[in-house]
Amino acid sequence: MGKVLVAGASGALGFEVLKLLKSRNIPGRALVHSSKAKEKVKPYTDDVFVADIRYPEQLENLCNDVDIVFSALGKSVSLFKPRLSDYDEIDFLGNKNILQQVKKSGVKRFIYTSIMGSDTAFHLKIAKVHKKIQNLVEQLPVGFTIIKPVGFYTGLHDLLIIGKRGFIPVAGSGTARTNSIHPRDLAEIVLDNLYQGPQYLEVGGPLTHSRNEMAEMIRKKTNARIIHFPVALIRAGLVPISLVTKSLADNINYFNYVTTHDMVAPAFGKITFQEYLDQLDLNELP
Ligand SMILES: NC(=O)c1ccc[n+]([C@@H]2O[C@H](COP(=O)([O-])OP(=O)(O)OC[C@H]3O[C@@H](n4cnc5c(N)ncnc54)[C@H](OP(=O)(O)O)[C@@H]3O)[C@@H](O)[C@H]2O)c1
Predict the structure, then answer these.
(1) Taking a C-beta distance cutoff of 8 angstroms, is the pair 264, 103 a contact?
(2) Cβ of residue 90 lying under 6 Å from some atom of ligand 1
(3) Ligand 1 pocket, residue 115 CB under 6 Å
(4) Which member of 23, 97, 251, 280 has the greatest number of CB atoms within 10 A?
């Protein structure tokens, strides 16, 4: 069985994919960019490639002996992981640099993690950038699958982190619905489509909830108060924030959009949000 490169192997989704590869005896190479991330992935592969994807000169030979590339690499959507770099620099430039290596090597297939809404929500920076990368992937001379998931349970950590401080913000009425997914369940879908699959695959989790229902589950976990914020107030707040940090404003804008619009994709997986919360240790969150 050929080797699979996991780009973003220390991230929520990439790490689950790496673990599954190991459990199925499929050789995996982990692309990470810090010594901390290297330590994290080491139990699951001896083949670790350390590089910052923004710099093409660090990526020479990245895809040597690799059959399949899976990319879950990108700037975090969390409000608590501010980075100076933005989606253009990490997601677009980074994935473009990886695609250059794919073209130069004998890679047979590329699997890309995009986002639900990448073909419509162009006013969101993250959606626009994912769409730009999709355009590049579509031009590859090798087979590809573009996975378009709804939000991950790990993407809701921000609400739990704020909840630990006493309140849970809900944008607007809270009636918008979604079927978020556990990254482990999504990793199973990636493995199911490793060798072949449709070109586009929208993926959601097993159960659909309103944002109010999810906030209520988080309230029970954190004992915090639910507070509804008018969407207009959040939009107004974005103006001064974007003057200070465009990167944080992009993430707030994303959060505001996905929590006030229905984001429901075909249901996969089995781990429910409640089950995820039940096993989560709040002490592990800042
Ligand atoms: N989270 C969600 O709710 C959600 C929903 C739909 C789609 N998506 C998309 O799915 C993909 C994966 O999401 P995720 O939540 O798993 O992301 P994540 O946990 O933030 O992981 C991103 C990965 O990219 C790596 N990375 C960032 N900058 C890098 C650089 N300069 N050089 C090398 N590696 C770098 C990170 O490494 P470090 O850990 O070392 O920083 C990490 O391994 C993203 O494209 C995201 O847009 C996410």
Answers:
(1) no
(2) yes
(3) yes
(4) 251
Q: How far is the CA of 88 from the centre of ligand 1 (A)?
A: 13
Distance (Å) from CA 11 to ligand 1 centroid: 5
Q: Count Cβ atoms below 10 Å from residue 255 Cβ, excluding itself.
A: 21
Binned at pLDDT 50, 70 and 90, residue 83 comes out as low
Centroid of ligand 1 to alpha carbon of 285 (angstroms): 17
pLDDT digits (tens, 9 = 90+) for 26-69: 999 999 999 999 999 999 999 999 999 999 999 999 999 999 99
Model-level pTM?
0.95
* 203: CB partners within 8 A, 6+ apart: 147, 148, 149, 150, 181, 186, 189, 265, 266, 268
